[in-house]
Automatic annotation (TrEMBL):
<keyword id="KW-0349">Heme</keyword>
<keyword id="KW-0560">Oxidoreductase</keyword>
<keyword id="KW-0479">Metal-binding</keyword>
<dbReference type="Pfam" id="PF00199">
    <property type="entry name" value="Catalase"/>
</dbReference>
<keyword id="KW-0575">Peroxidase</keyword>
<feature type="region of interest" description="Disordered">
    <location>
        <begin position="326"/>
        <end position="346"/>
    </location>
</feature>
<feature type="domain" description="Catalase core">
    <location>
        <begin position="4"/>
        <end position="346"/>
    </location>
</feature>
<keyword id="KW-0408">Iron</keyword>
<comment type="function">
    <text>Has an organic peroxide-dependent peroxidase activity.</text>
</comment>
<dbReference type="GO" id="GO:0004601">
    <property type="term" value="F:peroxidase activity"/>
</dbReference>
<dbReference type="InterPro" id="IPR018028">
    <property type="entry name" value="Catalase"/>
</dbReference>
<dbReference type="InterPro" id="IPR024168">
    <property type="entry name" value="Catalase_SrpA-type_pred"/>
</dbReference>
<dbReference type="InterPro" id="IPR020835">
    <property type="entry name" value="Catalase_sf"/>
</dbReference>
<protein>
    <recommendedName>
        <fullName>Catalase-related peroxidase</fullName>
        <ecNumber>1.11.1.-</ecNumber>
    </recommendedName>
</protein>
<dbReference type="InterPro" id="IPR011614">
    <property type="entry name" value="Catalase_core"/>
</dbReference>
<comment type="similarity">
    <text>Belongs to the catalase family.</text>
</comment>
Amino acid sequence: MGMTTVAGVAAVDVGAFAFAGGWLRPDALTPARFVDRFEHAYGRHDGFRRNHAKGLSASGTFQSNGAGTAVCKSTVFKAGTVPVIGRFSLSGGLPDQPDKPDTVRGLALLFLPPGGQQWRTAMVNIPVFVDSTPQGFYERLLATKPVPETGKPDPQLMAAFLARHPESAAAMKIINQSPPSSGLANSTFHGLNAFHFTNDTGATAPVRWVAVPLQNGQPTGAPPSAQNDYLFDALIEAVARGPLSWRLILTIGGPEDPTNDATKRWPDSRPTIDAGTITINAVQTEAAGNARDINFDPTVLPDGIAVSDDPLLSARSAVYARSFTRRAAEPKRPSEVNVAQVRDER
């Protein structure tokens, strides 16, 4: 499948997704207002994503062991290997922000099973999401915008936000109990939203997933302050030494587990399925023809996977599409992360 076809699903009907999710009302948020808020918080950077702007494209495979077919009929989970296009990123709208240990890291993946269907997912290295609704996310963007005097968020605005959103305060406590790993290659990436999986017999179950690294050898300790891109540089060097792999673990929820609230964890006692291995064997500077031009819309799903009642899913789809439409029409400038430069310097 050519990259033109892959990117073609990006420009979706944002109004339809938003209305279906129930969060778009005349007096409430719209995708445009949401994207405007990202631009207000981080500035406008033509040609880049409005969130997770700093990134590195990747490519590889997913080798399914067939175990996932117990809960899902998608050909992604049939025993065999399918191509994968990926993107590593940092949260925030600054494409040249310095790498920091506590910045949320992302791994987005596009699975390309035979038959023309696709599975797109955008995961992060935190165990729960901070917000349960699009409105909460929007309000947090307002509360976390740095003020000019200090360069940090206004503590009174943040305190007021947390008072209004106790679910976010509880989620932050969970996140703070899970310190980040030393690098991108040894990060665990969580698909925070719940989805409904259906197998060949028609049985349906709520499912979340996580990508667990098989490598843990990246250096630990404080990063050199002079290395603006130390996380990405280390990833580039690691892939140059050999492929990187993650186990794709599916967690099967019970009837009492929430599917509409990404701030809440499911119990560790829930059954899991090791569905196979995601392998990244190459990374690329973002440019035309790779993951730069893919919209990792989490509602682009193959047969056997369906969205749940999580309100964030329709909102993410709508806002991602609006961001894609804007940046697609804008002039491009070089990515901060340059694979060739890192390898030349080493």
